[in-house]
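REVIEWER CHECKLIST
Item 1: Sequence provided? yes
Item 2: Single chain? yes
Item 3: Sequence as submitted:
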Amino acid sequence: MTKQILTRKASDNEYLHKDFHGALSVGVEYLRRRYGDDAVREYLRQFASSFYAPLKTALKERGLIAVKKHYENVYKIEGGKVEFSLSDDELILNVEACPAVTHMREKGYPVSELFHETSKSVNEAICEDSPFAFELVQYNPETGKSVQRFYRKAK
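Item 4: Structure as written out by the authors:
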């Protein structure tokens, strides 16, 4: 029998991190129980301000199209279904079901009662110091189905 050698790099594999969401949910729940709801929000704001600094800059420079492109990529990678409605002053995301919540429910992972803050607090932080704001218009904790709205602040 001939010996075959398979050479692969990490970059050859599809990038997917669904189990990360389960760990994030456990972390959110730990913070909530140990330090309270406001600690969860503050942690997520601090994280988002740092991690999403390039997106924050793009939002200021290019407007809501930058956020739309970001979330198109996220939902493509995560396999989620989302519809976008974009104008110069408003971006609405209609999320059929959150891929993270769906995955956690399928695997039996606990979903923190504050898991919605991973969208709400994060998107609010992305909008800080920009002409835009964010609101989580609707959210279903069982499925993660949501309506998310980015909008231009009143002058």
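Item 5: Key structural point noted by reviewer: The helical segments are 18-35, 37-51, 53-62, 64-78, 99-107, 117-127.
Item 6: Recommendation: ____
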